[in-house]
Amino acid sequence: MINGDFMLNKLRRGFSTRELVRRQPMVRVLANAPVHWTLLLILVLALALLSAPGAMAKKASAADGQSRYTKLDLGPGHGSARIHYKSYGKGREALVLIHGWSCNLDYWRDSIPDFAKRNRVIAIDLPGHGQSDKPETAYTMDLFARAVDAVLRDAKVDRAVLVGHSMGTPVARQFYRKYPQKTLAIVIVDGALRNFPDKKFLDGLIDGLRAPNYKETGAQMFAAMAGPHLSAENQQRIQTSFVSTPQYVLVGAMEGMADDSIWGQDKINVPVLAIMAKSIFYAPDTEQFYHSLVPNLDYQLWDGVGHFLMMEKPKEFNEAVIAFLDKNKLLKK
Description:
Blueprint: H1 17-22, H2 25-32, H3 35-64, E1 66-73, E2 80-88, E3 93-98, H4 112-118, E4 121-124, H5 141-155, E5 159-165, H6 168-178, E6 183-189, H7 199-210, H8 214-225, H9 232-244, H10 247-258, E7 272-277, H11 286-293, E8 297-302, H12 309-312, H13 314-327
């Protein structure tokens, strides 16, 4: 089975012009009305104009979340790195969103509002990505897992349901290995539980990312992974985050995913939801293999979507995750 990341393949603005034109007859009504009714109507209109945008502004502010930074120790002699995350809501348990290779927390923008209505949400920029620091260090899955833990400690979250897209899946799995007592469940979003079997191909991919024209390699990869419902705007966001990620981070994180030591067949003994895109790049026994590692697995194979399925079908994705949380009585307020 191929690792998903390896595939080459208003704020409301007030009344509109149309609305203002539609409201012009109100001027004539006010002109002919008794004074007290005129004052009442003016008051009602003023409240409508002022309170509705205010409520929308409040909602938009909540959707933005609280942007915070914490520090991750990089080891003796290597200093530390600032890790950026956003927190939505309160509570000692949270739904933690972990993006994939060359991505950032903004990839969850269509899911966070729905999730935050139900429970606390933490969205993370992994080291080397988004607004987090980008030190020249080894970008291993262990480093990423420790970054997730640093965020949870800073956010005062004791236990979490980890949602990992693509590379976020081995990150979530490594977190579970290191901190099983903090892991309530895992949601796999088109992510791998075993390495790509063709080492020669994998080495060639990493060599391509080291080359001066690595951006062309990335463009080919993302073109192959884009599904039929991925909007032009989302495609541009994906390309922008890729070119904004330093080359040494791209190479290092890919090498981290290629490390055979992270692909052991140890069991995952918490509830797991796997939402996978139907693809010729996955081996026929993928579902069977996942079941062999996860006793409590809800495996869903979605047709007509690509690798970024949560961006292609956010409504369906959000509903599937919330149904999983409800079924397993997780993160109840």
